[in-house]
Amino acid sequence: MGALLDGHFRLTSGLHSSGYLQCALVLQHPREAEACGAALAERVRGLGAQVVLSPALGGIVIGQEVGRALGVRAIFAERQEGRLTLRRGFALEPGEKVLVVEDVVTTGGSTRETIDVARAAGAVVVGAVAIIDRSGGQQPLDVPFHSLAAVSLPTYEPESCPLCLAGQPLVKPGSRTV
Ligand SMILES: [Zn+2]
Questions:
Q1: Virtual CA dihedral for 49, 117, 64, 37, nearest 10 degrees?
Q2: 91 CA to middle of ligand 1, Å?
Q3: Is the Cβ–Cβ distance between 121 and 90 less than 8 Å?
Q4: Are 36 and 28 in contact, with CB atoms under 8 Å apart?
Q5: pLDDT-based confidence at 86, cuts 50/70/90?
Q6: Would the pTM count as exceeding 0.85?
Q7: Mean pLDDT across the stretch 110-115?
Q8: C-alpha 52 to ligand 1 mean position (Å)
Q9: At a CB cut-off of 8 Å and minimum separation 6, what does 157 contact?
Q10: How far apart are CA 128 and CA 144, in angstroms?
Q11: Which partner for 104 in 70, 114, 132, 167 could form a disulfide, CB atoms 3.0-4.6 Å apart?
Q12: Ligand 1 centroid to 97 CA: how many Å?
């Protein structure tokens, strides 16, 4: 579906990469989005999640689809002054079982932040899922983690990025049409 892009990208984590997975290009097709959500739901059905929580914006569509497949509600956290926060009247009950849903996990940073949002509300995070795991198995999450596919793409610290050295323009995905 053309979701795997070649170039020079600044990832949300701050790392640079020659590849980017723009999951929105898959999720724009409702049937494919629904199929991804159903496949992720099958992997975690036994965890007994009562609600899905995703980080905005990337996690919203797939979170909705996983929630649909599990038959539970799907809410999202969004950044307010740099911090992920529950807004719009979204709330978690103390002890409520939460599944965190992402589109792509690279360093696991935003997943961990989303887990922290749930725990701060007193909820219990029973697991996390992503369509794509590009962490190389390195994501240090303290909950069960599942993905539909593991994809290995090179990532670089900005100060040692060969693409920067070569003078290739840096693109922040989502900030313009690629
Ligand atoms: Zn670079």
A1: -60
A2: 39
A3: no
A4: no
A5: very high
A6: yes
A7: 95
A8: 34
A9: 15, 16
A10: 6
A11: 132
A12: 39
What tokens appear for 41 in the block?
């739901």
Round to whole Å and give the CA distance between 57 and 75: 12
Distance 156 CA to ligand 1 centre (A): 7
CB 118 within 8 A of CB 92: yes
Find the length of the chain. 178
What value does the mean pLDDT take over residues 130-135? Answer: 93
- Token duo for residue 165: 């050295």
Q: What is the pLDDT of residues 133-162, one digit of tens each?
A: 988 878 789 999 999 999 988 889 999 999
Pairing mode, strands 16-21 and 4-10: antiparallel
Q: Is 102 helix (H, G, I), strand (E, B) or coil?
A: strand
Q: Which residues pair with 19 in a beta bridge?
A: 6
Distance 118 CA to ligand 1 centre (A): 33
116 burial (CB, 10 Å; 0-12 / 13-18 / 19+) is: middle
Sheet (strand 83-86) strand order = 83-86, 73-80, 51-55, 97-105, 124-133, 145-150
User: How do 16-21 and 83-86 pair as beta strands?
Assistant: unpaired
Rounded Cα distance, 73 and 175, in Å: 30
Task: Round the CA-based radius of gyration of the chain to a whole number and report it.
Answer: 16
Ligand 1: centre distance to CA 68 (Å): 38
